Amino acid sequence: MHGFHVLRLNVPVPGSIVHNDETKKSAIHSLYIKEHVLKKPVAELPAKRTLFVLNLPVSAEACGSHTLHRPF
User: Fold this and answer.
1) Short-list 4, 23, 13, 3, CA closest to 59
2) C-alpha distance across the termini of the chain, in Å
């Protein structure tokens, strides 16, 4: 995807986590990230400090993605 950085994550497959790392199953999930640029400035979204992220998993909200939505 043009203009995006790709962040590939090893994500455990639900129900496959076991104590032996050799038998643990995982899948690759890719996030596509770029700087969030607005046509009109908005005070709540400071320039150079917000990201536009595509392909977040459906379960991301349940996993704590709300921490991504707060100012840093």
Assistant:
1) 13
2) 27
d(CA 20, CA 30): 25
* Residue range(s) defining the domain that contains residue 24: 5-69
* Count of structural domains, the chain: 1
**31 contacts: CB under 8 Å, gap ≥ 6:** 6, 7, 9, 53, 54, 55, 56
pTM: 0.64
Give me the pLDDT at residue 30, please: 93
Over the chain, what is the mean pLDDT?
77
- Please tell me the total number of residues recorded for the chain in this structure: 72
